[in-house]
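RDD family protein, pasting as requested.
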Amino acid sequence: MSVQPGWYVDPADPDTRRYWDGEGWIGAPIPVDATPPEGPPPPEPTPASVPTAAVPGAQPEQPAAGAQPGWPSAGPQPGGPVGGPGHPQGPPPGWPYPTWPGRQPLPRPHGLPLASYGARLVARLIDIGLVLLLNVVVNSWFVWRLLGEFAAPWHEYMRRVNTGDFRNPEPLPPAGEQFGGLLITVLLIATALWFAYEVPSMAARGQTFGKRLVGIRALPVEADAPLGFGRATRRWSTLGLPTLLWCCCGLGLLLQFVDAVSALFDQPLRQALHDKRAQTVVVQLPRTRLDPRSTPRDRANPPGDTE
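Structure tokens follow.
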């Protein structure tokens, strides 16, 4: 790409214009709303510099921190155009500044790697199994009553399936009168058991039993600290409260499925929707437990939300 010489908006400072001579920026910048002169600016005097070899013990000049490969670094270049003060040499006008060369490294919140989706899925399946066991103990009587109320339409449906009587115009018999109330009761108890299982442990340690077995932990984005009860509740409610909508044509299950797979498409922190609402990340803990007396803590950041 060849850019004709002229005055252009400086890519490094959009509030100024500089002169591009076809090979590099020359002269001092002018305000972007000022009328540029015709032709190139007058050359600026080059400040005298002492050769490095003349200074005893001087170190050779190192590239500037953050300099990108392929572009000239800041300051005057030997044999090239001289840039204005405070304005490094850069790409021609209209060219984007180079980004991180190669593949951008994965973030490490609080110095820990992000947990993989597989580890999070295994931990969630363990937690679901434990919550189901709690429901067997606490909720089984209501579930049994619910199945009894639904027995009449279910038996008629299975009779038609077994006999091939699919063209029967008669509607299925209705469920029992207590079916609706029992369904709401079962869903309320199931949601409350899930809340009691997950929220207190996440508030105190950032881990459920499943997360501890897999070795992952949820942390606030801004600090290596406990989540606190308020943040843990917000995180759980995005995934747990849709359980109450299971009776609405499976709407609750659909919302929970979308939340569960959302971490697959989030970059770079792999946050599910419940993580984004609570501003948390899930990290993989080291296999060897660190000595807390020798592990530095981030005291400058605020503690987790405790509201």
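Note for the archive: Helices lie at 117-138, 140-149, 151-163, 179-205, 209-214, 228-240, 251-261, 273-278.
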